[in-house]
Specification:
249 residues, mainly beta, Neuraminidase, Thrombin, subunit H, 2 domains, 4-stranded antiparallel sheet, 21 strands, NHL repeat containing protein-like protein, TRIM-NHL_E3_ligases, repeat
Length: 249
């Protein structure tokens, strides 16, 4: 872990996890780490005690993790086309439930294919980056059929996606997406989707990306992107133009 502007890590967390694909950091600094590939679990690193506990049993790797406002943990299992969840307040470790998908990858409204990034809003609605179907699906609370909110098959298509791998929903319900195979980050607004980062092709320049995988925002709106093939993490500063509209730099 690095503090802002530091070039040297301030803390190095070591554990027995193997090939983790995703993590989720809570407001109090606890970290949920995928350890599903060989160990079949999700681990939680507790910041206060610097210890690990197992909080979920899974059959395969979690390509996305999320903890909602009710302390429910979500895991997207890419190779099963499914998102599972369990309450962290439930003492039974095997209490996973299906949140989305049918355990058979597909492209119908109740199916997923290669789900990766996930996001759960304050209404407990689930957004899924449906990687192989080139779309983002919204599963409203209690519904097994998803609504395509981004991609060619959405009700009001405004953008074409190629391998969406990460998603974030802001407080104004605007959706931000890592469009991996287009090597860019896109975001929605009043006039639909627009490109924010990587808008001029892939590469290694400061305004380019090469197969980005995931991203997050800090409290100030700055964006941090895992730029996979460039082997770096890029920070893009929040800026506003002369009309007060947000843009990235």
């Amino acid at each position: 872990m690095w503090q802002e502007e530091n070039i040297n890590p301030t803390n190095i967390i070591t554990g027995s996890f193997i090939n983790p694909y995703s993590l989720f950091v809570t407001l109090n600094g606890d970290i949920y780490i995928d350890d599903g590939e060989q160990n079949g679990r999700v681990q939680k690193w507790i910041a206060e005690t610097n210890t690990f506990v197992t909080v979920m049993r899974v059959s395969l790797s979690c390509w996305g993790l999320f903890v909602d406002i009710n302390d429910t943990l979500y895991c997207s299992i890419q190779y099963r086309g499914q998102v599972v969840k369990r309450s962290l307040n439930d003492a039974v470790m095997t209490s996973n439930r299906v949140a989305a998908g049918t355990d058979f990858p597909g492209s119908t409204s109740n199916q997923l294919s290669g789900p990766r990034g996930i996001f759960v809003d304050v209404n407990l609605d689930l957004y899924v980056a449906d990687f192989n179907n080139n779309r983002v699906q919204l599963f409203q609370l209690g519904e097994s059929n998803g609504i395509t909110v981004a991609g060619n098959t959405s009700l009001n298509p405004t953008i074409t996606l190629r391998g969406p791998s990460g998603i974030v929903l802001d407080t104004e319900k605007y959706l931000f997406i890592v469009d991996q195979h287009n090597h860019r980050i896109v975001g929605s607004g009043l006039n639909g989707f627009r490109c924010l980062v990587g808008c001029y092709g892939y590469g290694s320049q400061s305004n380019q990306l090469f197969r980005p995988a995931s991203f997050s925002f800090d409290p100030y709106g700055n964006m941090f992107v895992t730029d996979t093939e460039n082997h770096r993490i890029q920070k893009f500063l929040l800026m506003k133009d002369s009309f007060g509209k947000l843009k990235k730099s």
